[in-house]
Amino acid sequence: MAYKRSELMEKRLADNREAILAAARRLVAAGGYRNAPITAVAAEAGVSTGLIYRHFPSKAELFVEVLTAAVEHELAILSAIADEALPASQRLRRAVASFVRRALAGPALAYAFIAEPVDPEVEAERIRCRRLFGDVFKRILDDG
User: Fold this and answer.
1) 31: Cβ–Cβ under 8 A, 6 or more apart, which residues?
2) Is 31 part of any domain?
3) Triad 118, 36, 98: Cα angle to 5°
4) Can you give the three-state secondary structure of the chain, one letter per residue?
5) Among 65, 64, 70, which Cα is nearest to 124's?
6) How many domains, the chain?
7) CA angle, 129 as apex, 128 and 130 as ends, to 5°?
8) Is the per-residue pLDDT at 2 higher than 70?
9) What's the CATH number where 70 sits?
10) Structural domain span for residue 13
């Protein structure tokens, strides 16, 4: 009979995973990818480095997930603006202003997500995310 994890164990694993992601995001926001080694993420999350590698086989995979979560949040905001019942020019101004405002509020995070040198896997995800942002802006422009 295969081992079945208890609900408590599943919750603990999920909580640890969320703590790791939150810690990685805080460290990247404070100083970029270069200031977020796995040992620092582990210390920030209050877990061992081994536990991080149990959830994420590599630093790149951890940061791809951090980037993806942040981009999904940004895309939800921009998509809501794109769907507003306003003229395309107003929606475009609002979308750009919203995007820029958040980038200026967190410059280290914005730099990490846009231009900081990163592992190829993270760069591939950034390229995919840029296309998604472009799709939202294109949707607004196509309406105008």
Assistant:
1) 108
2) yes
3) 70
4) CCCCCCHHHHHHHHHHHHHHHHHHHHHHHHHCHHHCCHHHHHHHHCCCHHHHHHHCCCHHHHHHHHHHHHHHHHHHHHHHHHCCCCCHHHHHHHHHHHHHHHHHHCHHHHHHHHCCCCCHHHHHHHHHHHHHHHHHHHHHHHHC
5) 64
6) 1
7) 95
8) no
9) 1.10.357.10
10) 7-143
Tens digit of pLDDT for each residue in 33-70? 998 999 999 999 999 999 999 999 999 999 999 999 99
- Taking residue 82's Cβ as centre, other Cβ atoms within 10 Å add up to 22
Torsion sign across C-alpha atoms 134, 140, 143, 144 = negative
Residue 141: closest CA among 95, 74, 76: 95
**Packed helices 59-82 and 120-143: angle between N→C axes, nearest 10 degrees:** 10
28 Cβ partners below 8 Å, 6+ apart? 35, 36, 63, 66, 108, 109, 112
Q: What is the pTM (predicted TM-score) of this model? A: 0.84
